[in-house]
Amino acid sequence: MTQGYGPQGGRQGQWGGQPPQPGQPPQGRWDGQGASPQQWSQGSPAPASPGWGQGSPGPGAGSYPGAAGAVPSGSGDGVNWPRVKTLGMVLLIGAVLLLAIRVGIDLAAIVGADGVAASSAGGEITGGVAIGSSLVLLLLFIANLLVSLVVMVLGIIAAVMGRGRARLGGVLVAVGIPVATILYWILSIVMGIVLAASGAVDASGELTASHFRLVYGVDIVRAVLMGAVILLGAFFVHSTAKKKLSA
């Protein structure tokens, strides 16, 4: 008689388990050796989460100045070219306006040369044309002073903010304003001396209306030349900023 604990001849298993029935897959053991390694030792992959040292990105990250990935408003050279472009546009308008005012001063002086000659001789200004031209001259001189100051200050700002040709343009504008004024007085004095030396004066030693017309006619050339220099400087400021922004 034989007696054992292993499965022999259709007897029960070692621990009392039933033998597998025909067509039924064998059952796994309790120690998990019959299961797939991934089934017992691995769980479902957890969703990726930021590390301990990293926070979750907030909404709209990189959309405000100073954030990582934000697009800088200025260029790499540190110049605020949109503002320089605006300055250039204002300088262009101011240069054209200044040129028109200064040419207008000379034209008004030519029209009212009789009144200018009378005023220079110490007499009274008479006649509607002379009085009207004198009032126009006064208003134009005030406008010339105000516009010249504004354009000169904007030229200095453009020279400080700009780079390259923009800075050169600002210097031309800022320097052109006082140079034009100095040239006006130099030209007036030289023309007066030349006309007086040539005997082109009246009995009292004063210039006549015709001579004043000649002086202001020559001054138109000075006003146009200096206005062109200021206009060129304003163009340098605006065109350079425009090229930098389109690059």
Automatic annotation (TrEMBL):
UniProt keywords, alphabetically: Membrane, Transmembrane, Transmembrane helix
Residue ranges, annotated region (Disordered): 1-69
Compositional bias annotation for Gly residues: 1-16, 52-63
Biased composition (Low complexity): 26-51
Ranges that cross the membrane: 90-111, 131-159, 171-194, 214-237
Keyword Cell membrane part of the UniProt annotation: no
Protein name per Swiss-Prot or TrEMBL: Uncharacterized protein
Taxonomic lineage from the root: Bacteria, Bacillati, Actinomycetota, Actinomycetes, Micrococcales
